[in-house]
Amino acid sequence: MAPPAKPITSPVPDAWYPTLAVFMLAIGLVLTASFFIYEATSSKRNRSLAKELTAGGVASVFLGFGSLFLLLSAGVYV
């Protein structure tokens, strides 16, 4: 006989959702701002594709997870 199934729970406590949303969105916005400053101040000869992709990717991850936790803290379970 199969054991009874356990309900699915979040690995992160619900009380942490707003805090995680604020911190991740703040970090993502700071990284996005640094990316734009890098693009505006560096010449075309001094730009590095790897640095651009790294900065953009990391900012995107933080903004994505920040948006996810913002939706979760607002009660929109995605």
Automatic annotation (TrEMBL):
<dbReference type="Pfam" id="PF05251">
    <property type="entry name" value="Ost5"/>
</dbReference>
<comment type="function">
    <text>Subunit of the oligosaccharyl transferase (OST) complex that catalyzes the initial transfer of a defined glycan (Glc(3)Man(9)GlcNAc(2) in eukaryotes) from the lipid carrier dolichol-pyrophosphate to an asparagine residue within an Asn-X-Ser/Thr consensus motif in nascent polypeptide chains, the first step in protein N-glycosylation. N-glycosylation occurs cotranslationally and the complex associates with the Sec61 complex at the channel-forming translocon complex that mediates protein translocation across the endoplasmic reticulum (ER). All subunits are required for a maximal enzyme activity.</text>
</comment>
<keyword id="KW-0812">Transmembrane</keyword>
<feature type="transmembrane region" description="Helical">
    <location>
        <begin position="20"/>
        <end position="41"/>
    </location>
</feature>
<protein>
    <recommendedName>
        <fullName>Dolichyl-diphosphooligosaccharide-protein glycosyltransferase subunit OST5</fullName>
    </recommendedName>
</protein>
<comment type="similarity">
    <text>Belongs to the OST5 family.</text>
</comment>
<keyword id="KW-1133">Transmembrane helix</keyword>
<feature type="transmembrane region" description="Helical">
    <location>
        <begin position="53"/>
        <end position="77"/>
    </location>
</feature>
<comment type="subunit">
    <text>Component of the oligosaccharyltransferase (OST) complex.</text>
</comment>
<keyword id="KW-0472">Membrane</keyword>
<dbReference type="InterPro" id="IPR007915">
    <property type="entry name" value="TMEM258/Ost5"/>
</dbReference>
